[in-house]
Structure to design on (108 residues):
């Protein structure tokens, strides 16, 4: 078994998610209060240090063609940086550190 841990990859995900939230936001549903926060999160730059999708494809190909593939392939700096943190810190603390929305309440 091989695990690919890509970290941030440049895709159109944020653009498509924004289109969906704008369409849904117009309706007064039970989750409408959450949409502004989701949109603020999408406005932030989640693509810092990201790689193109082709980088993931190259790593997958390398793992497939290898006679002895590594168990894990971490592609971006963010993916590599989280490994030591996960060994040293509890999940809730990591989540709090990664949360970038200063308007959001700090719950642990």
């Amino acid at each position: 078994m091989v695990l690919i841990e890509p970290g941030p990859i440049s895709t159109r995900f944020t653009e498509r998610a924004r289109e969906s939230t704008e369409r849904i936001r117009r309706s007064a549903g039970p989750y409408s209060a959450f949409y502004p926060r989701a949109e603020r999160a999408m406005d932030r730059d989640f693509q810092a240090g990201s790689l193109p999708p082709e980088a993931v494809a190259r790593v997958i190909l390398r793992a497939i063609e290898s006679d002895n593939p590594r168990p894990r392939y971490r592609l971006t700096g963010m993916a590599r940086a989280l490994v030591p943190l996960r060994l040293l810190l509890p999940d809730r603390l990591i989540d709090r550190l990664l949360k970038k929305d200063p308007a959001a309440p700090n719950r642990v």
